[in-house]
Each structure stands twice: as structure tokens, then as C-alpha cells.
Amino acid sequence: MSDPFALYNENQTPENRAICDRLLSEVDRHLPEADRKIWHGAPVWFLNDNPIVGYHVLKRCVRLLFWSGQSFDEPGLAPEGSFKAAEARYTSVDQIDADAIARWVPKARDIQWNYRDIRKNKGLTNRIS
3-class DSSP state for residue 43? Predict the structure, then answer.
């Protein structure tokens, strides 16, 4: 059976596919222990059923999203949404900074807010690590 992440990437434009392939490679390299699945239509890595990082093709870019990224205190990530998520957006594979991803992904492992139980906690997130 084919890898769902690879299938997701194959269905993108050539430019977006190159970005997605690179993000897949970089995140996999630094988060090999994570569970990977297509979640809400996009590739997402999970630790203990908690979403950690994922990417998604938007209309004008590819977004790399870290669910707890606002807590990383890292340049290159912009706040996203009303919780603790932060993102980086790419329109070209040349914009991807492998060194930044190498810093961000371990922080995603170590700094987690509980998104797994957000419904049970009535919309609140608690830091779990």
C-alpha cells in the first residue's frame, strides 16, 4: 500500500509537490518516532495521539504548522489561530530552512499543549510537557 503522505504530495502542483516532499523529508528525519496520518485532509505527525506538526497546501502557499509553535520562542514562525499554534509559509522549495526545521521539530517534541483532549477540556489547552 502506498504512503498516504506521498499520495498527498503527488496530488499537488509540481512546485507545491517539491515543497511538500522536502517538508516530509525534513520532519521525518527529526521525528521518526511519531505516528503519521492524514488528518483533516493534510499530513500530520502525532505523539501519543497529540498533533505535533503538519503541512497543508493553501491557495497561495504551503503551510508548515506546529500546534505548540508559539511556545518555541523561535524566529521564522508566525502565530496562527487562537491557541498555541505557529506556522511558516512557503511558495518555493528554496525558502525552506533545514536548520530552522531541525530546531523546531525537537521543540515540537518537547513543548506540547494538549490538543488531543481539547473537546473534553471544553476548548482549553494545557501544557503536557
Answer: strand
Q: Residue 49 is placed in which grid cell?
A: 495521539
**How much is the pTM?**
0.87
Position 113 confidence tier, pLDDT thresholds 50, 70, 90: low
DSSP assignment of 46-101: EETTEEEEEEEE-SSSEEEEETTGGGS--TT-EE-SSSS-EEEEESSGGG--HHHH
Q: Is the separation of the CB atoms in 105 and 86 below 8 Å?
A: no
Grid coordinates belonging to 14 = 509540481
Domains of the chain: 4-110 (3.90.1150.200)
